[in-house]
Structures are given as structure tokens and as C-alpha cells.
Amino acid sequence: MSALIELKNVSKSYGDFKALESVNLEIPPGRIVGLVGPNGAGKTTLLRALTGELDYQGEAKVLGFEPRTHRADLMEKTGVIHDIAVLPSWMKVKELLNFLEGIHPGFHREKAEHFLKATTIPMDKKIKTLSKGMKTQLHLAVTLAADTRLLILDEPTHGLDILFRKQLYTSVLEDYFDEEKSILISTHQIEEVEHILSDVIFINKGKILLYSSLEDLGKRFTQLTVPADQADELRNQLKPMNEYGILGRRVFLLENTDSKALVGLGDTQTPSVADIFVALMGGES
Amino acid sequence: MKPLIVLLKREWLEWQRVIIGTILVITFLNLLMLLSVSRGSDFFHSKLEKDGHILIEDVQFSDEDEEFDVDVRMKGNDVELSIDGDATPRSVEQMLRKVAIPVAFGLRLGMMGTFGFILFLSLFYFSDAIYKERADNSTLFYRSLPVNDHMLLGSKIAAGLIGVIGLTLFLSIEYLAFLRIAIWIMGDPFTSLAGLVLNQISYLRLIWDWFGYLLFAAIHMAPLALFLMLVGTYVKGRPLLVGIGAPILLSISWAIIFQSAALLKTIGRFFWGFNQVIIDQWESIENGLETDGAIYGNFWAYIFNPDTAISVLVSALLYYGIWHVYRKNIPTG
Fold it and tell me: Contact at 8 Å (CB) between A71 and A52?
């Protein structure tokens, strides 16, 4: 099946500052991709380029559309949730549903009302009177109620408490995702989404450092925990990408190491995405 | 077409309080007018009872062929026309028309006042149209919908245009209706006298004439409206203050630095244009009373002139600027 997102040498500069540098990506349908990077890495710039909100150099195709010139067509099949509250604050909740019903051909009002029934959001209140969590819930409800093929979430849990965060990702998985659709989630809190991702993209300073499925990551990276007194010897032998100490033991992160060769040296584990991210960023920063 | 209607409805929802508030304020002023008229009516009726008559109009009419003097006075429940001179029926008709012109023009001035007020309000609308979206970050929401930028921006401009013309026409028609009620409250003989004049005026024609004028004025003022919108796409705060203040400051600086008021005069002359046509029409009406159209003026002709063409051209350039900056979605904070 053809890719939902295809980027070839996409770059974006603000004066001398390169926000994106020759980004190449190909994301097929049926994937949940985490876009991970520190603050200022270029995550939001990349997402805004994908949704046609920014000019860029290079070639981009999202759902077969060039985002900048066919933004309206693209948005018919793409849902976007931003890191800040963007719903018109003066509208009432029911007015928002009426508005979307009229303007979005793929919007299903009953679906949105069904999602909202599970919340405490009042239909006749103005959006500006809702709490931050409610605004995100409302935005999520109306976004998931539209018939789209791609969902782009830009730091969707920013500023939300743990309950709302859990609910948000549960809703996305249960009410939206299937093998025809893809989800691109930007975050710098990788632990929060790691369990739902199928792929991960590491980005820093506008460059893609890594794009891999989680399955391949598990094969490529290994975490080895060794006694502190053997650390120096093993460090010279294994050349770990990164290491840290925990309860008097040393933890090595190893890349492309044969797991058979590690037998008897210590405890081996699949490292978390966060550990791999820290290791890779350490080399970049 | 449906998205445009939905977007126009969105503008209505956002601005309905201002529109309804304006209608209520103007209606309140009209009601005050009725109260004053009612009190004035009592005064005139007591004067009529005391003096037996009231002189309403003393018209001297003269041209190469004839010269006469007409007094219009109220006597009892009747209106009395006394003609002193050699007047032909055609002249009497013209004389009545001459009395009707100021009334028709007075009605238009009422509409002008309303238009001026609505124009003032529309400055707030146009300066806030995009700025408010930027301030609450909803530009990002609207641009995540399957609607192109031209539709989003066009709906705002169209809503402003429809709002200014529609609200002015509505309030002007309301003013006309209140005027008729006021005349009815005055009672005879005032009602009969007013009828002599008002029966010559076709309300439909008058409203059509107003509509033509409003369309002309809207096109003429479009550069100002779009300039304010453009300012609203990039300033960090107070778009109206910046939009109005910056050109004035620039013009004054220009005048001081280059010792020339050319810029001030050019801007003034251009924006005075929508008012100048009223003055031109007033003069043409005073000088020639031969046709029916003279009572109402002919504003449709003004729509096709060089000034309007310049307005359209400048507006197109400003629109391009708005579109270009709008896509950048510059944050306010």
C-alpha cells in the first residue's frame, strides 16, 4: 500500500536558523508513529509543514496531496490536534458542532455527541469557560468524529493531568485507530506514548536521527546491566553507546551487538525508547 | 457555496451581539424622536388654536418666463397654498418638487448619519476580524478544516460588506418607518402637509438609491477596511489604534519633514470621496430639477469611475498582502 506521508529533502529555514534540514520520511498506513525530540528540535515545524501551514523547500506528499497547495483537500482526510487550545473561544460547544457539521463533509455529529456524553462538557457553555482538560477533550471528540485517514497530534497532552493523558491515548486507540489509518504523535515525553507506538522518529536540530519500528529497535539495541567492578573491562570490550549507574551496578546501552555474545556478562534487556533517545541525543547535543 | 454560508453564519454568531445592540440603540433613539415629536405636536396644535394658522413655507420662484411667491400655511385642519404671481401648472409641480427635494435629501442625510455610525463600528470589525482569531489561536483550528484560505478570508470581507450595507439599509428603513409614525402622531393638518411632499417620493426608489450609494461607499472605503485587516494579521496588539494611528503619524511626519501636506491631502481627498458624491449630487439637484432621478441622485454612475477603479486595485493589493501574512499565522503573544 502506498505511503500516507512521503517527504523528500524537506527543509525549512528562518533566516540563518535551519528548523528542518533535508528531512526524508515515508510513513505507510496502519502505523502509530512517535515523533520524539527535545524542545526546539523541529517537531512542530515538521508537523506544520505536513499540514500545509508552513512554506518549505523540497517535496512533500501527504495522503497524495501537496500540503501547501492542496491544504483544504488534505484537511478533509486529516485530523489535527495542536499543543495549545485552538478552538474558537467565543463559540458555544453546540455551535462548534453545528459549525463543523456544515463545514466538514466527513464530520459525524452523532459520533461527536457520543464522545462528549462520556465527558462532563456542557453543550451550551462557551469554549472559553471550559478547563484546559475539557478543551482538549472537546477538540479530541470533534477530531475523532471526522472521517479521516491521518491523525496528527502535536504534544496533545501538554499541560494535562495524568487522568486526561491516559484517557486521551485510550480514546485515540479505541475510537480511531485501524490498519487503514496512521497516527503521528509529537512528544518530548516518550514514556507516555511508548506503549502504543509502532514506530518512532527521533529528531533534533531539524534532522531526523532515527526512524525505525519498535520491533527493529528491540533487535538493534540491547541493554546490559553489569556489576560495577567489571564495568571498566566490559566497557573497553563492548564500547557501549551510553551508560549510567543504578544501585551500584552499571547499565550499558549497546548497538548491533550479538545477544549470544552477552550471555554470562550480566542481565540483558530490551532498552526503553527513552534510553535509546537519551543515548542518541547525547551524541548529538 | 455551503462552506461560505456556514462561514458567514459563523461571523453572524460572533458579531450578533454588536449588531443587535446597535439596532436596539438606534431604535431607542428613534423612540426618543417619537416622544419629542409627540410633545412638539401638542405645542403646534396649541399655537394653531391660538393664532389660527402657521406659516410652514414661503417659497419664491423665478425664472425667465415667470415669477411668483408661494406661501404654504396650515389653517384649521387644512393646508393652504397661496400663489402670488403668474404660475403655470408645470411651475407649481416644480415648486412642490423643490419642497420635496430637501425632504428626500433630509431622509438621505438620516441614512448618511446611520452609515457614518455603522462605518465607525465596522472599523472595529475589520481591525479585529483576523486579530481576534490570532489572539485565541483559532487560526490554527480554522486552517485545520477543509476550507481554503480565500474562502476563510473572503467570508470575513463579505460579512463586513453585507453587515455594513445590510445594517445601514435596515436602520434607514426603520428610520423611514419611524418618520411615518411621527407624521401620523403629529395629526392633521401636519399629516396632510407632509403627505403633499412625501407622496412625491417613491420609497422603493429612495431605498434603491441608498443601496447604490452604500455599494459605492463600500467599494470606496474597501482599502481602509482591508488595510485594517492587514494590520490585524501581524500586530501584537491594538490593531485599530495602530491601523489608524500609524498612517496619521506618517502623514504628519511627512508634512513636518518635507514641509508638504501632500500625503495628508491625498489620503483625505481619497477618503472624503464617499462624502463628496453626496455634495456633488446636492449641487446637481439644486441646479437641475428636470428629471425624476434628480430627487434621489444617481449614485450608480459613481461606481464606474477612476476613483473606484483605484479603490478596487488598491484593495486587491491589500488582499494579497493579507493572504500572504495570514498564511504565516504570526502569533500575537
Answer: yes
Of A52, A55, A95, the CB nearest to B13: A95
Cβ proximity of A182 and A28 under 8 Å: yes
CB A62 within 8 A of CB A78: yes
Distances (CA, A) of B147 to A28, A103, B94, B143, B257: 26, 8, 57, 7, 47
Contact of A213 with A48, CB cutoff 8 Å? no
Per-residue pLDDT band at A130 (split at 50, 70, 90) = very high
What is the pTM (predicted TM-score) of this model?
0.82
Residue reference for cell 553489569: A226
Query: Could you tell me the three cell numbers for A180?
Result: 487503514
pLDDT in tens, A243-276: 888 888 888 888 888 877 777 788 888 888 888 8
Q: What is the DSSP string of A32-79?
A: EEEEE--TTSSHHHHHHHHTTSS--EEEEEETTB-TTTSHHHHHHSEE
3-class secondary structure, B28: helix
Nearest CA in chain A to B150: A72
- Closest Cα partner for B213 from B280, B260, B258? B280
**How far apart, in whole angstroms, are the C-alpha atoms of residue A246 and residue A228?**
10
Q: How many residues does chain A have?
A: 285
Report yes or no: A35 and A43 within 8 Å, Cβ to Cβ.
yes
Whether A76 has its CB under 8 Å from any CB of chain B: the answer is yes
Q: In a mutagenesis test of the A interface, which of B145, B152, B328, B332 is the best target, namely the one with the most A β-carbons within 10 Å? A: B145
Q: In terms of Cα–Cα distance, which of B85, B115, B327, B87 is closest to B214?
A: B115
What integer best gives the mean pLDDT of chain B? 82
Query: Which residue, A92, A96, A142, A95, is CA-closest to A116?
Result: A142
Total Cβ atoms within 10 A of residue B87: 17
User: pLDDT per residue over A191-246, tens digit each?
Assistant: 888 888 999 999 999 999 999 998 898 888 888 888 888 888 888 887 888 888 88
Q: ipTM score here?
A: 0.86
Main-chain phi, psi angles of A205, to 5 degrees: 50, 40
- CB-CB contact of B295 with B208 (8 Å): no
A268 contacts A224 by C-beta, under 8 angstroms: yes
Three-state secondary structure string covering B119-156: HHHHHHHHHHCCHHHHHCCHHHHHCCCCCCHHHHHHHH
How close does chain B come to A3, measured CA to CA in Å?
21
Q: Which residues of A touch B134 (CB under 8 A)?
A: none
Q: Which residue has the higher pLDDT, B49 or B284?
A: B49
- Please name the residues in contact with A225: beta carbons below 8 A apart, sequence gap of 6 or more: A246, A249, A250, A251, A252, A266, A267, A269
Instruction: Tell me how far apart the alpha carbons of residues B1 and B3 are, in angstroms, rounded to a whole number.
Output: 6
Question: pLDDT tens digit string along B214-225?
Answer: 888 888 889 999
Q: Identify whether the C-beta of residue B230 lies closer than 8 Å to the C-beta of residue B318.
A: yes
